[in-house]
Amino acid sequence: MSKPQYFVVRMVRLSVEQVKEAAGFTNPLKERELDLRSSRIDKLENLGLTLNQYDTLDLTDNFLRSLSNFPMLPRLKCILAHNNSIASVDVDNVKVSLPSLASLMLTNNNISSLDEVRRLQKIKSLRHLSLHGNPVTASANYRKETIKALPFLRTLDHCKVTREERESVGQPGLLNNYTGSVDTAGESSSKHNNEAEAPAEIENEDSNAKKVDPKLLQQAFEKAITPEALAALEEALRNKKFDAAYLAGMESPTHCGKRKDTGAPGSDAPPPKRARRGK
Q1: Contacts of 110 (CB under 8 A, 6+ apart)
Q2: Considering the entire predicted model, what is its pTM?
Q3: Of 90, 109, 198, 240, which residue is most buried, by most CB within 10 angstroms?
């Protein structure tokens, strides 16, 4: 009987050479992306060498146990960190160093508590969050508690946060921001949400938005199930280009549970789950 073979994987810190030699490209969203996939990284360093030239940072398939130690990168909007061992996010570092961070994709990691999720409320710019494959998703009322703690989210685990979900936790929906209707639910729960208020930038953008037919807008939000579609819809509202013709041109929705997951670079879809590495 042959002896079992063991393989030792050497983990490394992110070196100057790795940053300089990493592939940079324009992804399908027409954003500049830095590819650091499968680089055996267990700690982030030297990212200041990117000179704030990237919108997306791909850290998928590494050995990271924490998201921390970011330099000032005000341009960075999206972090893809699927298939690591991330158990925590240094929110104090992220909120200061990454003020534009809107998408945080952490599929297949080790976030295990709702308290860790609640800490993300300090990152007011966050709009899209994925925690698929993390132990915390097995917690009772995980989705409800996450939406309550992070009222500024547009999508959670690749599914749009619906108006009904917002109302169920006493949070104002996006619809009220554009129709000018009064949100009594938000007023009644304001004492519970002082530390997790929606960012001022949304209020400023929405204050100048054109009043539109709420029925048309509701139909539009039902169709806009992806982060890209939501962003395009909000842009149309800000530029006063939303009307019946815009709604007719939107693609029909596909149920998020049946969406094909490709895990391609630049995509928010979760990659195929793999076996957990040993620490």
Answers
A1: 65, 85, 86, 87, 134, 135
A2: 0.64
A3: 109
Maximum Cα interatomic distance, the chain, rounded to a whole number of Å: 76
Q: Residue 141 contacts by C-beta under 8 Å, 6 or more apart in sequence?
A: none
pLDDT in tens, 69-122: 999 999 999 999 999 999 999 999 999 999 999 999 999 999 999 999 999 999
- Complete DSSP assignment for 155-175: EETTEEPPHHHHHHTT---HH
Dist. CA 219–CA 234, nearest whole Å: 14
CATH superfamily of domain region 9-158+259-279: Ribonuclease Inhibitor (3.80.10.10)
Strand partners, 132: none
| Of 194, 192, 122, 131, residue with least CA distance to 157 | 131
* Domain(s) of CATH 3.80.10.10: residues in the chain: 9-158+259-279
Question: What number of CA atoms fall less than 13 Å from residue 100's CA on the CB side?
Answer: 12
Q: Say which DSSP state 240 is in.
A: T
Dump pLDDT digits (tens) for 31-59.
999 999 998 999 999 999 999 999 999 99
What is the rounded distance in angstroms from the CA atom of residue 215 to the CA atom of residue 132? 32
Secondary structure letter of residue 235 according to DSSP: H
In Å, what is the CA distance from 109 to each residue of 88, 154, 223, 226?
10, 21, 30, 22
Buried b / exposed e along 99-129 (16+ C-beta atoms within 10 A): eebbbbbbbbbbbbebebbbbbbebbbbbbb
Contacts of 232 (CB under 8 A, 6+ apart): 224
Write the DSSP string, 99-151: TT--EEE--SS----HHHHHGGGG-TT--EEE-TTSGGGGSTTHHHHHHHH-T
Task: Label residue 249 by pLDDT band (50, 70, 90).
Answer: confident
